[in-house]
Amino acid sequence: MAVATHHQLPYLQYPPPPVHVNNGGGGGGGDLEWINVSGGTFQMGSNDGDSDEQPIHTVTVSSFEITKYEITNGQYCEFLNNIGCNSNGSHNDVEYIDMNDNDCQINYSNGQFIPESGKTDFPVIEVSWYGSNAFAQWAGGRLPTEAEWEFAARGGNNSNGYTYSGSNTADNVAWYNDNSGGNTHQVGTKATNELGIHDMSGNAWEWCNDWYDNNYYNSSPQNNPQGPSSGSYRVPRGGSWFSYTFGCRVAYRTWFLPVNSNNVLGFRIAR
After folding, report:
1. Residue 134 belongs to domain with CATH number
2. Which of 5, 105, 207, 212 fits 233 for a cystine, CB–CB 3.0-4.6 Å?
3. pTM of this prediction?
């Protein structure tokens, strides 16, 4: 599926992360690197952004863990192979990844899903919300709530109040429209945020569990908000290689249909 543009604003090297997911016991996630996010209270939203980022409101989240990196092509291939996904990227008639899009960085050959050459450690893209959620469950986790995602992106209890995840300068922490060259990049090649998490601004949008409601902040509970009980769209966060800096801010919100898959959509998981 082509890039969706209704909300896309054309906006140090580090060691590469481990690639392989441990599939022992019928599940995955053994080799994912996790960052502990101690529970805390923060001000969610922004008065400097769009109307759906307002009002700023107090949110308290319990402790959780989130992956240090976005889920990679290599990790997603292990999942697809483990569950016996169809060669077109669907499972039980639900599209998990759009294998027919030229931007997909995963191929199917000799009965196996394999990353494109040189793209093993790049964030998986062209994944639907359903495909992201299925991986999360397979790996013993879940998709983060929107509140958990923003708390982690802001640096949790170590937050310095940055505009982007880890800096007030997008180039330090994000692959985005001005520096990406029109592509995703290997995860973990920009600086971390205060918690040691990479790429929460830029590279690929990250699916969250929540349904989207542009007025949700007017009625969101303080403690562990889960988002609306129903809706039409799911929330991805963080911006992508295609976004301008405005879309890479930690407070920025957007929406996609959960069946959508395109070359800016990826994810990370929590537990």
Report:
1. 3.90.1580.10
2. 212
3. 0.90
